[in-house]
Amino acid sequence: MMGKRGRLPVLAAMFAAAGTCGSAHAEDAFPKISGEVGIEVQNDFTFDSDDPAAEQNELGATIEPNLFLHFTDHVFINAGLTFEAVRDPGPQEDRVFQDHGIFAEVLTLNYETDRFGVYIGKFGPNFSMAYDAAAGLYGTDISEDDIELAEFLGVGGSLTFDETPIGAMTASASVFALDTTILSESFITNRGRTRQAAGEPGNTESPESFALAIDGEAVPGMEGFRYHVGYALLSADNAATEHRFAVAGEWSFEMDNGVVLTPLAEYVHFQNAGSNANESRNYLTGSLGAEFGPWNAALAYTGKIVTISGAGNGDTYDDQIQFSVGYAFDNGIGIDVGYKHNRTAGIATQTVGALVSYGFEF
C-alpha cells in the first residue's frame, strides 16, 4: 500500500500546524469551517525482487482532507479523512487507481488553548516521530507500517511549557483502544471492519492502553532542534502486554551556501511485540534531508531487528534504504522521484517511483 505522510517539504511546510488548530484558524463568526487538503498521485514500479510475485506496478492517489468545525475560539471538531488504496495488490498484480476507499483516520471533539488541550474520539496516539518526519519519498515506509499508532478510540490531552531551562516542552498523554466500530470500515471500497476477536495489541473491549510523550524544541544554543520521547503500553486480551519506547531527534540548520540540512534519528524498542512474550523488536531510522531553494533531496535508512527467544530461534534483520530528489513549483505543485531497496525476511526488492503532490488550505 502506498505511503501517506511526512515525505514532502512543500506539504510539510504548508500543514505544519494541521493537528494543533485552535484559535489561529478561528474568526469572529461561529460556527466556522476551515481545513487543508493534501493530494498525491504516486506510481511505484517494483522491477526486481527475489520473490517474482512482488514485481508489479501501482499507480494510485492519496487525498487527505483535514477539516475543522469551530464552535468557539477554543472548541472545535477535527475530522481527518483519507482516500487511498485500502487493499493490498495480489501477486504480480498491476493496478491503476484501483481498490481506493475513504475512511476517517481522525474524528475528535477538541478543547484547545495556547497551553492546554484535551480531545475525545478517534485519533492517532502520540508515540514516535519518524513515521511522519523521516525525509524522502520512501523514508517513512517501515515506520508507518510497523511503528505508527493510528485509528484508536479514547481520550487525550497535552500541556505546553513555553519556557524551561531546556526550551519549550509539550507533555501529552492518551488512553485508548483500537477502533472496532463502523468507523474502522472504509467506503467506496470497503476494507472491512476491525474485530475485537483479532486480538492484536491495543484491541480490547474498553480503553486499557495508553501513551505518554514529551516533545521539545527551542533548546538554548540549538536553534532548529526538536526532540521526542515516547512510551506506549498496548493491552491485549489473554496475551502479553506490549511495551513500546521511542526516542528521536531532528535538527534543521542552514549552511553558508544556503543549503538547509535536516538530519533525523529515531530508535524504537518493542517488548512483547505483537503481544508475543517471546518477541522483541528494535528499529533504527536515520534520514538526511537537504533543501536548496525549490529543490530537495533525501537519503533515508531504517533497520529492524526481530529477536524471538526459544530453541531454534534467533535474530532476523530487515532493512530499507532510499534516495529521492524533488522540486517544488511556485504554484504549489511538487514532483519527487526516488529509489528504494528493501530487504524483508531475506527477500530483496527494488522499487523506483514518482510522486506529484499539491496542497491547499481554506
SSE layout:
Elements (H helix, E strand, L loop, with lengths): L8 H6 L17 E18 L6 E15 L4 E11 L9 E2 L3 E13 L3 E8 L6 H4 L7 H7 L4 E10 L6 E11 L30 E11 L2 E13 L7 E10 L1 E2 L5 E12 L7 E14 L2 E14 L6 E14 L5 E11 L2 E15 L1
Describe the structure.
The chain has 362 residues and is mostly beta strands. The chain has a domain at 105-353: Porin, CATH 2.40.160.10. It is built from three helices and 18 strands. The chain has helices at residues 9-14, 130-133, 141-147; strands at 32-49, 56-70, 75-85, 95-96, 100-112, 116-123, 152-161, 168-178, 209-219, 222-234, 242-251, 253-254, 260-271, 279-292, 295-308, 315-328, 334-344, 347-361. Strands 1-2-3-5-6-7-8-9-10-11-13-14-15-16-17-18 form a 16-stranded antiparallel β-barrel. The longest helix is centred in the middle third of the chain and has 7 residues, at 141-147. It is globular.
